[in-house]
Amino acid sequence: MLRTALEQCMMPPRPDEHASGFSRLVFTFELVPARASKGKALDDIIRFAREAADHGRVCALSITENAGGHPALTPRSLGTEIKALGIAPIIHFSCKDKNRNLIESELFELDRTGLNTLLVLTGDFPRYGYKGRAKPVFDLDSVLVLSMIQEMRKGLVIHSKALGGGVRLEPMDFYAGCVVSPFKRTLPEQVQQYIKLKRKIQAGAKYVITQMGYDIRKYQEVRLLLDRIAPGVPLLGTVLIPNLRLAKIIHNNVIPGCTMPTRYLRELEASGGSLDVRLDKAAKLVALLYGLGYQGIHLSGPGLEYEHIAHVISKAEDYSHNWPSLVEEFLFPEEWNSFIFHADSKSGLNKPSLISLKPRPFRSFSPGYLIGKVIHELIFEPGKGLYGYAKRFAHFCAQRGCASWLAKFEYFIKELLYDCQRCGDCYLGDIEFICPQSQCAKKLVNGPCGGSQNGWCEVLPKEKRCLFVRQFERASWDLDILFREQTILPPRDWALDRRSSWLNFYLGKDHHHIDGTEKNED
Prior knowledge:
By secondary structure, the protein is of the alpha/beta class. The protein contains 17 helices and 12 strands. Among the domains are: 1-6 and 22-180, TIM Barrel (Alpha-Beta Barrel); 367-446 and 488-516, no CATH class. Helix content is 38%, strand content 11%. The protein has an 8-stranded parallel barrel, surrounded by 7 helices. The chain has a two-stranded antiparallel sheet with strand order 5-6.
């Protein structure tokens, strides 16, 4: 099992263990189900899984869930078959396509069937499906799903007002991990990725897998950061072995969150997409990640047989004895300059010292930001300004039946300033007065998805800048924020939809729980 393998590799090596320790490296492989329930593509997956189980060097097979936003066979179905072959499945569990109730139901199903090893992701925005694009559903983000899973591990307490509520469920033995991308090309995107990683670990992520990107200095960056913020959490590096067609698709930014350096693509093109070249490059990258202290390698790529993976692992062990000599081959300074650690000119990698963020130009002269900042500090900060008067006025409106009129007045103003969506549970004060309901295609509140490109939204590139890039530019953060406890914002409460968020705030009904009170749902 992945859990056992990772726990063992985190332990100090035995005195009699091979000097290189390469045998301790954990290997997983990613399977991508087809948009079908039968056929050659699925037969090939089962054959690969059978061979991997027989040979034993790959300890687990991860199964994607609607990768790229396209419908496909669910990982739960394949996971059951793969588990029966004697190899551990890692179920990709994404937040899209389902609301929080379905998320909970699917987690019950996974625990019931013994598919307890999960990789939790926000998920890609839906693409073309049956007769058009599907409706996007991002009711919870990956941080909140990890929080739910953490509660299930302890025994989820059902709310007393729910049907059959007031009880604690039996603990569920989940082992859930998360993903992070160190391959962002702008500093605001990169810092926000790492802040969200901190939230995921706080929420209970037990292991971390990187996105793919090939630059070894970026791979080392997340290794150095994780050593500081969560040294006991295993880190696996993704090594993609693309064919030439896939490499070109990634290079054109078609697959959210994936990056392909131009120089790397040119090398593949020069070889004609040679399989030997692709496997050799993968082996070198595996050796480098081993040398940097990664606990595991997450291999992936289309059209690969198990013998190809076995070759990569064997070749990587040979390269691992002199891994520093490979560093220069995997440096792409023309692609990335948004590092949070200083460069080490001697090794080509990073020094362990953090950079200092330069003062950011003040870009928030928008009426929404300035007005929101003033009003928030005046009447929404408990114990300050006119807060007490505003709270009494809110209770007066609620008791005298003026709530609907107050809601109309509130949303008239907020629609002009923020393109307000009338959610009734306002996050403006939490995200530098930018509305996540109207300004984020996935409605995220706990940090960005992995799909942004050069500061642009994954869904609307060149049209809308990522909400969390804009938040970074408005905030006065330094990198010490990465080492502080992060606030995890709860999800939107749909019971408050179309009601006055001002009243819900003062009456203790929204996510703020003012005055230290629990949420009042009366």
